[in-house]
């Protein structure tokens, strides 16, 4: 088949011996490392309403070489739990498979590698039964999902069959007896930071402002192969993967269902939710975010992108010098003048210029600027304060200020539910 080169180049060998059903249309990939609550996550998926296609849950049980005996025993236990899940909830249309990725070389070990193993397997199985639009959904071994999770994924691709990938709505639990009040308050602040970053990016007109959360994303098998598959990053693998797809315009948001990631502290990755919660609980560091001004500085640039097409280098330099000091300095540091001229000489219209400009000033460049502005000008700021300021600038603050982080988060969740896109 036409996708063979992808698997040949990787030296891929299938890990699941059982042949896929000809009706297979959706695979849920779950990386699992030293996970005590895997069975609960599998039960959450098992309780979902099934779509018209068959579904496979592929659990990649993994640990690095040299792991402590406790970790190895946890891996063995997780494999047994997948077998148990198949006995409890497996059926003609739903199957659970364990893929053992034990003793991974330490330089590769991490969630990116585990997702890669599972997504490669899922793509291979879907493409081998001629399902290029078959869905590869990513989930986590400590997450839960709404009962309509599977059916809504299916419906998205049924309604929009040319979709390459999507982000699925997510909400961290904000109460319960599983964690302390400190954890629930902390995760509210961290999720508010994520949503504030997303909404502030949209407010200033950045076209690629979407959530990229590993436990709540999905792609088609065809797109997975087309864009080179998952990377092996030990953190941020979700961001890197989706940013290969988002700029090409066939990306959607799925807000009609929900994934509930765990708020637990973790030191498994160098950054992200678990790390932020670990710093909060164990080092008593507060959750901070980027100053709103660092976002607002970008609005004049994004507003005038097409105008840049008609400028010469002297005019472009003058325009850059007119921007806010942090952004101006950043653009000179990254040699934006040369990059803009390179884009200009390779397009024939303002519209084409805009598309190629954002392939240069993409989500990576956006984040690089935000970090530059924070490190050199604004510092990191209390998330509640900055999120409230943004709300004051939008049409969403009709109810006035709110008293708590959780209340403010609920407002941002409602904002994120609204369909959004910028056409390039």
**Helicity range:** 40-55%
User: Could you describe the largest sheet, including whether it forms a barrel?
Assistant: 8 strands, mixed
Low-confidence stretches: none
The CATH topology annotation of the largest domain reads as: Spore Coat Polysaccharide Biosynthesis Protein SpsA, Chain A
CATH-level-4 superfamily name of the largest domain: Spore Coat Polysaccharide Biosynthesis Protein SpsA, Chain A
Question: Care to give the gist of this entry?
Answer:
The chain is an alpha/beta fold. It is built from 19 helices and ten strands.
Describe the protein's architecture and organization.
This protein has 424 residues and is α/β, with parallel strands linked by helices. It folds into 2 domains: 285 residues, Spore Coat Polysaccharide Biosynthesis Protein SpsA, Chain A (Alpha-Beta Complex), CATH 3.90.550.10; 87 residues, no CATH class. The protein contains 19 helices and 10 strands. Strands 3-2-1-4-7-6-8-5 form an 8-stranded mixed sheet, with helices on both faces. A two-stranded antiparallel sheet has the order 9-10. Strand 2, helix 3 and strand 3 form a beta-alpha-beta unit. Helix 6 crosses helix 9, helix 6 packs across helix 19 and helix 15 runs antiparallel to helix 16. The longest helix is centred in the middle third of the chain and has 23 residues. The protein is globular and about 65 Å long. The two termini are 33 Å apart.
């Amino acid at each position: 088949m036409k996708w063979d080169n992808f698997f040949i180049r990787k030296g891929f060998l299938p890990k699941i011996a059982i042949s896929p059903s000809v009706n297979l249309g959706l695979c849920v990939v779950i990386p699992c490392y030293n996970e005590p609550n895997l069975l609960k996550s599998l039960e959450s998926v098992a309780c979902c309403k099934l779509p018209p296609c068959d579904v496979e849950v592929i659990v990649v049980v993994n640990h690095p070489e040299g792991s402590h005996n406790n970790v190895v025993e946890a891996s063995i236990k997780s494999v047994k739990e997948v077998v148990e899940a198949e006995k409890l909830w497996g059926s003609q249309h739903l199957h659970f498979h364990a893929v053992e990725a034990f003793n991974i070389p330490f330089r590769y070990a991490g969630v990116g590698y585990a997702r890669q193993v599972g997504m490669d397997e899922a793509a291979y199985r879907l493409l081998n039964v001629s399902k290029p639009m078959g869905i590869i959904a990513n989930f986590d071994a400590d997450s839960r999902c709404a009962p309509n999770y599977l059916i809504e994924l299916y419906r998205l691709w049924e309604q929009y069959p040319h979709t390459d990938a999507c982000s699925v709505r997510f909400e961290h639990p904000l109460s319960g007896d599983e964690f302390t009040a400190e954890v629930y308050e902390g995760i509210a602040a961290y999720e508010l930071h994520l949503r504030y970053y997303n909404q502030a990016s949209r407010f200033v007109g950045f076209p690629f402002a979407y959530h990229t959360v590993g436990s709540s994303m999905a792609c088609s098998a065809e797109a997975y192969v087309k864009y080179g598959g998952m990377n092996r990053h030990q953190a941020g693998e979700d961001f890197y993967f989706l940013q290969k797809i988002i700029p090409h315009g066939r990306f959607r948001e799925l807000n009609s269902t929900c994934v509930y990631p765990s708020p637990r502290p973790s030191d498994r990755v160098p950054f992200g939710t678990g790390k932020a919660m670990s710093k909060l609980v164990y080092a008593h560091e507060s959750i901070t975010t980027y100053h709103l001004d660092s976002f607002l500085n970008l609005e004049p640039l994004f507003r005038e992108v097409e105008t840049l097409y008609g400028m010469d280098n002297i005019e472009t330099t003058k325009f850059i010098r007119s921007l806010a000091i942090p952004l101006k300095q950043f653009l000179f540091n990254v040699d934006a003048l040369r990059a803009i001229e390179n884009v200009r000489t390779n397009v024939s219209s303002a519209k084409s210029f805009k598309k190629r400009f954002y392939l240069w000033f993409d989500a990576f460049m956006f984040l690089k600027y935000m970090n530059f502005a924070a490190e050199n000008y604004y510092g990191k700021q209390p998330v509640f304060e900055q999120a409230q300021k943004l709300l004051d600038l939008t049409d969403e603050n009709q109810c006035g200020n709110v008293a708590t982080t959780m209340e403010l988060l609920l407002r941002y969740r409602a904002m994120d539910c609204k369909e959004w896109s910028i056409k390039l």
